[in-house]
Amino acid sequence: AEPMRFGNLFLAGDAAHIVPPTGAKGLNLAISDVHYLSRAFGQHFTSGNDHYLDRYSDMALRRVWSAVRFSWWMTNLLHRFPDQTEFDLKMQKADIDFLRSNKSAQSVMAQNYIGLPY
User: Fold this and answer.
1) What SS3 class is residue 9?
2) What is the pTM of this model?
3) What pLDDT score does 18 carry?
4) Counting C-beta atoms within 10 Å of the first and last residue's C-beta, which end of the chain has fewer, N or C?
5) How many Cβ atoms from other residues are within 10 Å of residue 7's Cβ?
6) Rounded CA gap, 39 and 55, in Å?
């Protein structure tokens, strides 16, 4: 859901976004949403400053879309689909071979898999 805020209603976790399970990002995203919201609520209730409340959706969605992209990529890398062409299958194999043989690609995959910093 975009935005993840509607007036005084703040959406988090599965109420705001559901990603393919291949990347195992659902719980990570829910926790990052709560991280952003707890900071925003803390600032709001202690000092009356709404900066982080106003930025919550944008900050959370940046992370959400990164996780959605990663989960989409993992799903397409690891699964076969009925409508795949021979070209699609060869591209999939080339991606797997590249990932298997390239340390930089492995590092990027690991960074995305374990989760990007808040």
Assistant:
1) strand
2) 0.84
3) 87
4) C
5) 5
6) 11
Tokens of 72: 């989409």
Residue type, 24: A
The rounded Cα 110 to chain-centroid distance in angstroms is 14
Distance CA 68, CA 3 (A): 16
- Tokens, residue 48: 């009356």
Single-letter amino acid, residue 48: G
3-state secondary structure 45-84: HHHCCCHHHHHHHHHHHHHHHHHHHHHHHHHHHHCCCCCC
Each residue's pLDDT expressed in tens, for the chain with a length of 118 residues: 899 999 999 999 999 998 877 777 888 899 999 999 999 999 999 999 999 999 999 999 999 999 889 999 999 999 999 999 999 999 999 999 999 999 999 999 999 888 777 7
Q: Specify the amino acid at residue 27.
A: L
Rounded to the nearest 10°, the torsion over CA 6, 70, 78, 88 is 100
